[in-house]
Here is the input.
Amino acid sequence: MKAGVAKRKITPDRTVEMSGYGFREQPMQGVHDDIWVRCVSLEQDGRQVAICSIEILSLEDDQVQRIRESVASAGYRPEDMILSCTHTHGGPAVQYLRLCGTPSPEYQDFLIESISQCILEAGQSRQECLLSVGAASSGLGVNRRKPSPRGLLHELNPDGHTEPELVAAQLKRPDGEVMATIFNYGCHGVCMGADNRLITGDWPGRAARSLEAEFNAPALFLQGCSGDVNPFTRDTYETVDVVAAKATDAVHAALAKARPVEGAFENWRETVALPVEMPPSEAELQALLARIQSRPKSEWQWMDKLDAAWSNAVLENSRDARRREIEMEIGGVRLMSPQQSVFEIVWIGAEAFSTYASHIKENSRPAPVMVTAYTNGNIGYLPDARAFPEGGYEVEEAYKLYGYQMITAKSEDIVLKALGISA
Ligand SMILES: [Zn+2]
Here is the structure.
């Protein structure tokens, strides 16, 4: 196998609005730590793969499309590319999310150009390499959906599900020198909250920089299925360091157990159509708006602002808002030797809940698997079926940031089937 690596700084060089929180004052006030796009380009028997880790919240479908088009001339097909966002909540606004910071068109163009150039550059410097993969467990992520008599709370719930496995891979030259480290774990990039107005890669960025200093080679974080998972501690830059240290500890443990993997790439990609709920009727929306607008704007809570913006958008774009399904991409980059998978990176274009990672891993055992979400686009939350009757932020509110309607509880069945898993 041959590998090339590249990285580019994507820190905004002028003031832009940030993404990740609706109730954040805008715009950014400075830079705490630089953010990067990092790419590993692999080639085996004429088949190639570009694995990108991008330190932003998420990318939109048409942005993914533009990157795909700009590297197509280098032979990359859409299924050969993993454009994975770390989901830092301290990055510039890129994907449009209602009330969550207005993306700057100049920054969007700069980012798309940077990612495309990084992929091309990585592909031009390929040399012989050996790939090894290992796994270890970490408790840095905790489920953040807590059932209570008052309903489902957005709070840490140590009894809730997480996928504790961290998978780490390393590419080395035949002489043993490290070319790149890739690590995958599912936990929101939210050590820093809405009051942080400095650009930061949050804990994934901090962990990547530590590993880069240690191995003197780019370190790529592939964010996992973290739709329902937050760090065990948060709110200050000290917690960023603490959580990142826990991540790098697990990377060390995983690398200590790493085994060489070899094979031929078999890449796949599929679009799944997920059914969505019908929005409320026009009369119901008008009534909701009237109720909110009967109070002075200064008294509006965050949810009133979101409901007002969302209701207006649904009324104004009634055709889009009444679409019956949303399309989401999933795919995988599989290393086959010769008939069976020895390593795979599965990707999902959504904020998938952690049970998805567990199902995928169970299904592929004993081969190690990385499962990365927020990849090649992001339709919003992809809860598991169990979460729908429970409700909560991810089920009842977040879709109003993303678009018009929530996907239905049937989604889990459809996605698992498309992944070849029977639930
Ligand atoms: Zn999120």
In short: The first strand starts at residue 2 and ends at 9. The first helix runs from residue 61 to 71.
